[in-house]
Design goal:
Structural class of chain B: alpha/beta
Number of strands of chain B: 8
Strand content of chain B: 15-25%
Largest sheet of chain B: 4 strands, antiparallel
Shape of chain B: globular
Strand content of chain A: 15-25%
Distance between the termini of chain B: 39 Å
Oligomer: heterodimer
Structural class of chain A: alpha/beta
Shape of chain A: globular
Number of helices of chain A: 16
Number of domains of chain B: 2
Largest sheet of chain A: 5 strands, parallel
Helix content of chain A: 25-40%
CATH architecture of the largest domain in chain B: Alpha-Beta Barrel
Order of helices and strands of chain B: EEHHEHEHEHEEEHHH
Radius of gyration of chain A: 21 Å
Chain lengths: 469, 195
């Protein structure tokens, strides 16, 4: 019988299966951070339960850490309490923590792959919806709520209803593969299938245009699966995957044997059936800029802000949503995207703050200066990314251009730390959500790629970045 | 968890699509380390002005809906972040039932863990409910909603229904399968991160 990659991973992790009931699925990797875990550890204490497999569990601190000088005391007491709580919980329950001053600290979805903790064919969870990032390695990786964090800690399993499968077939070749990025591919996909297009499904990204991408670019795609409503998105592993994970800090000792096994098993069999299929030709994709308050409200950079009617396409609810979005974003229909001025630029987040993202952005910035009306910052995805970037001199390029160069963390992607937009400020952001108030109450977010963010910082407004490289 | 019982309540109509968890509970309130007390921050940016004053035009500020236990809303409710704080805030505010044409997956699953019943209905019934002013009767046991002269049946996974009705603790139930989990680990040893 033919099976999809997802079905193979699912079947090899079923602990209990009964007719018409959710299945009990074994979890291979559990990543933890400070925001969604305190109540889970509390639950364990109240019920006198232990962590079943501390050796399959790691923690880091990323959501609320300051990205400024960490030798200084934290100003925000509640954040500080949350961090201390995680430190105590990890100590009490025997969990490895990459703490605030650890060289391996970073955004949880960035450090997992970087440390070789993420493995093909595995099941990975974290109390964070962007866990889908790690699906780029051919893992079933998905976000969970705090109750499920507690459940995983106590049992190393979760009750899950088997999701349906959704093939996203990306064909063709990008016309300018530097200026049209994997971010533009995923934003185009979400624009077309909608923010709930993938609900109840696991996405499998396939086709030459996906194979063509580097591992870091693939992570950007899988990261935003959740923005299309899918709890998980995955890509079959190949040589690039195996090379990426080789010789990392926690790469398993019998890695070569594992790779042989993965090569034989981790692919969707020919003629497998998906519940749904969507095809996209990447040759037609332009650089993308979001104009609204959800990640499907996106336009080509050469086009204009749509009218609510154009966007809504006769759907009353969508038309109404677009009206509200335009009002919140303070944008008028028919404004050319390139005429939208910006106040802030944020290059960071689990979507786009890995080394390649920073290299590409630096390529644009090199020898130029940030527009005087714009304040711009770079927040590397992990301390290791930061160090590698500094070894390449990228920090100098950014600082010379008047970008701020920060310590790693989630930062202004969600603004739980002091990095937030002021009400009314407009930001070109490489993050994943343009929801109202996401980057700060009243703040206006435009989702873009790292090269688009970099070029916009210099110009002071959106530009067709293809003309810059 | 408290067993889920029959509900008689008026509806709070929130006629919006794609209500994301950042709206339900903005990030500045995610720093608490307990599960209680989130209700006062529910829909914070929609409920309050920058000076902390209540906005008159937001439905949750209308005292008429103060005792409502049922929120009716539009498609893709609860999208975005996995934060369970969104469900804790809705429950703490007084909502035991959310009715929508569709929910985001993680939010939907989080509801059941906290004794909140998410009900999926077709758009026509949602439209009717959004307009309905009087008290409705909602019974999980028989899976019916009675409003005025009309009655609608809703679907729900029987496993989840039982857990809600009996207020069962998921972890207790799973630990009954402990031998199976142990056998699974024995038969296919999992790769420790720190070998």
């Amino acid at each position: 019988m033919t099976e999809t990659l997802f079905e193979k991973i699912w079947n090899s992790h079923v602990v209990v299966e009964r007719d018409d009931e959710p299945s009990l699925i074994y979890i291979d990797r559990h990543l933890i951070h400070e925001v969604t875990s305190p109540q889970a550890f509390d639950g364990l204490r109240v019920n006198n339960r232990k962590v079943r497999r501390p050796d399959l569990t790691v923690a880091t601190i990323d959501h609320n850490v300051p990205t400024t000088d960490r030798s200084l005391p934290m100003i925000d007491e509640t954040s500080s309490t949350q961090i201390k709580t995680l430190e105590k919980n990890c100590k009490d329950f025997g969990i490895k923590l990459f703490g605030i001053n650890d060289p391996n600290q970073g955004i949880v979805h960035v450090i997992g792959p970087q440390l070789g903790i993420t493995l093909p064919g595995s099941t990975i969870v974290c109390g964070d919806s962007h866990t889908s990032t790690q699906g780029a390695f051919g893992a079933f990786a998905f976000g969970i709520g705090t109750s499920e964090v507690e459940h995983t800690l106590a049992t190393q399993t979760l009750w899950l209803e088997k999701p349906k499968t959704f093939e996203i077939l990306a064909t063709g070749k990008r016309k300018n593969s530097f200026a049209v990025t994997s971010k533009d591919i995923i934003l185009s996909i979400i624009k077309q299938i909608g923010t709930d297009g993938g609900t109840g499904h696991v996405l499998e990204y396939r086709g030459d245009a996906i194979s063509d991408l580097s591992m870091e670019q693939r992570m950007t795609i899988c990261n935003m699966s959740i923005e299309a409503g899918s709890r998980a998105g995955l890509i079959a592993p190949d040589e690039k995957t195996f090379d990426y994970l080789n010789n990392r800090k926690y790469t398993p000792k019998n890695y070569d044997d594992l790779v042989d096994d993965w090569k034989n098993n981790l692919m969707t069999d020919a003629n497998s059936k998906f519940d749904k299929t969507f095809t996209i030709d990447v040759e037609k994709i332009e650089p993308q800029v979001s104009w609204g308050t959800n990640p499907a409200m996106v336009s080509d950079v050469t086009s204009k802000v749509p009218t609510p009617e154009e966007f809504g396409n006769n759907n009353e609810i969508q038309i109404e949503s677009a009206k509200k979005a335009l009002s919140y974003m303070d944008l008028k229909p028919d404004t050319p995207i390139v005429d939208i001025p910006i106040d802030r630029v944020f290059i960071g987040s689990c979507t786009n703050a890995r080394l390649e993202d920073l290299k590409d952005a630096a390529e644009i910035v090199k020898g130029k200066t940030v527009n005087s009306a714009v304040s711009a910052m770079v927040v590397p995805g992990s301390q290791m990314v930061k160090l590698q970037a500094e070894e390449l001199g990228l920090d100098r390029i950014f600082k010379d251009a008047n970008f701020e160069w920060r310590e790693s963390g989630c930062s202004m992607c969600l603004g739980m730390n002091p990095d937030i937009l002021k009400p009314g400020e407009r930001c070109a952001s490489t993050s994943n959500r343009n929801f109202e108030g996401r980057q700060g109450s009243g703040g206006r977010t435009h989702l873009v790629s790292p090269v688009m963010a970099a070029a916009s910082a210099i110009a002071g407004h959106f530009v067709d970045v293809r003309e810059w490289c | 968890m408290k067993p889920f019982s029959k509900i008689n309540s008026i509806i709070t109509p929130l006629d919006k699509a794609n209500v994301d968890t950042d709206q339900i509970i903005p990030k500045q309130f995610l720093k608490l380390i307990t599960k209680s007390g989130f209700g006062k921050f529910l829909f914070y940016d929609w409920r309050f002005n920058h000076d902390g004053q209540e906005k008159d035009d937001f439905i949750l500020n209308d005292s008429h809906y103060k005792t409502s236990q049922i929120l009716v809303t539009n498609e893709n409710f609860g999208c975005g972040s996995s934060r369970e704080h969104a469900v804790w805030a809705l429950k703490d505010f007084g909502f035991d039932v959310i009715i929508s044409p569709s929910f985001a997956d993680i939010f939907y699953s989080n509801c059941f863990k906290n004794g909140v019943l998410p009900i999926i209905l077709d758009i026509e019934n949602i439209k009717k409910l959004l307009q309905f002013k009087d008290e409705i009767e909602l019974d999980l046991e028989s899976q019916t909603i009675i409003f005025g002269d009309e009655s609608i049946n809703f679907k729900i996974d029987s496993h989840r229904k039982t857990r809600l009705l009996e207020g069962l603790d998921d972890i207790d139930l799973t630990l009954k399968e402990d031998t199976k989990i142990e056998n699974f680990e024995k038969n296919s040893s999992r790769i420790s991160i720190f070998e």
